[in-house]
Amino acid sequence: MRAPIREVFVSAQGEGPYVGYRQIFVRFPRCNLECKYCDTPRDWDAERKCKVELRPGTGEFVDFDNPVSEEQLLGIIKSYERIHSVSLTGGEPLLYAKFIKELKPSKFPLYLETNMTLPEGAREVKDVVKYVSGDFKLQGQCDFKGHYEKYFNDTARSFSILRHTSFRDCFCKIIVSRDVKRDEVLHAVDQIKDCITELILQPVTPVNGVEAATPKQLFELQEAAMDKVETVRIIPQTHKMWGAL
Ligand code: SF4
């Protein structure tokens, strides 16, 4: 099986509870959503090569033809050492769920970063991913084209499918901008609180005119969410602070 891949590189995880761990990042192109704060370029077409950084941190890339086979990707992953896990990111990696399912013999565990709106994809990969960083998108954060209720329900279903088990850690990340409504966050948390090990409130990195939440807002939200989930942490995007990819 093959899938288009934008790039493969090594960096430190910049978000959530595994911040700082060294990971291989496999970035897939395309997404089924258009979030206002998205910082992933959408300018990708099938003619583009997959750029692979063979030596971590060098910024020196070699090109692989797209689409890439799972054997090729497993070979690239195997060439690295001292890696915590393989971050499958995007875009939206669950658009390529059947391909991800074939990565099961990976040398390092798989860490899925997903918007959680594709439950059928979640079902495909549930037995192969060891870590799930799942977003819960709020109304107003993306263009849901009038179908937010469907996305909301699909997100709850995906969390149920990829829930925390003895094999898999699943946590939820909610992006917090200044216009986020407290009750909406708490309603979302109510749907998934039994599926996750912890909730991460991630203050938005201001982009495209989206404003950062204030510290007061974040503390109030954390306080309220702790009534529902035992561990609620406020963790910003750290890789942006030190200029990492
Ligand atoms: S889900 Fe992620 S990749 Fe997709 S548009 Fe939103 S922020 Fe960007």
UniProtKB/TrEMBL annotation:
It catalyses: 6-carboxy-5,6,7,8-tetrahydropterin + H(+) = 7-carboxy-7-carbaguanine + NH4(+). InterPro entries: 7-CO-7-deazaguanine_synth-like (IPR024924), Aldolase_TIM (IPR013785), rSAM (IPR007197), rSAM_sf (IPR058240). Its EC number is 4.3.99.3. It comes from the Archaea. The keyword 4Fe-4S applies. Pathway: Purine metabolism; 7-cyano-7-deazaguanine biosynthesis. Mg(2+) binds at residue 40. Its cofactor is S-adenosyl-L-methionine; Mg(2+); [4Fe-4S] cluster. Keywords: 4Fe-4S, Iron, Iron-sulfur, Lyase, Magnesium, Metal-binding, S-adenosyl-L-methionine. Binds 1 S-adenosyl-L-methionine per subunit. One of its GO terms (molecular function) is 4 iron, 4 sulfur cluster binding. Catalyzes the complex heterocyclic radical-mediated conversion of 6-carboxy-5,6,7,8-tetrahydropterin (CPH4) to 7-carboxy-7-deazaguanine (CDG), a step common to the biosynthetic pathways of all 7-deazapurine-containing compounds. This is 7-carboxy-7-deazaguanine synthase. It comes from Methanocella conradii (strain DSM 24694 / JCM 17849 / CGMCC 1.5162 / HZ254).
